[in-house]
Amino acid sequence: MSRILGIDPGSRLTGFGVIERQGQALRYVVSGCIRMTADDHPGRIREIFTGLSQVADEYRPDEVAIEKVFVSRSADSALKLGQARGAALSAVVIRELPVHEYTTTRIKQAIVGRGHGDKQQVQHMVMALLKLPALPQADAADALACALCHAHFGQTLGRMHAALQAIR
Known about the structure:
Strand content: 15-25%
Number of helices: 5
Distance between the termini: 27 Å
Largest sheet: 5 strands, mixed
CATH superfamily: Ribonuclease H-like superfamily/Ribonuclease H
Order of helices and strands: EEEHEHEHHH
Structural class: alpha/beta
CATH architecture: 2-Layer Sandwich
Oligomer: single chain
Shape: globular
């Protein structure tokens, strides 16, 4: 059994989601959002780091899946998102957790079946795949989708590795 922490970084709201993978079975553990309350950007960076550090310490993931930064509307927005992502990465790499990065397109393709699904489709599919009783909050759903993407990708890589070993 392994635990995967999915992270959807944001400078005002950072989503997180933890799932467990045991063979082919995937189980929901927890999800939520770190809502920044600080007025200044450095304070928000600290809140991301502290919040994800607490999640990692409490739920003890074995690996991390994080959404890659995409091109933003402005250079300032892209820079702030990159810094938020850096704070999130710092919180997990300091714990020596392996990190896997996925583009938004790859995540949506793995969860929705096409790379340009909308947030509601992602929420609905995450709810269905994890058998949740209600739609998760959008940023938490994105983080869970990232973790699910990694779980599916990891299973595929595992099957490919096993097939290669069988050939040798």
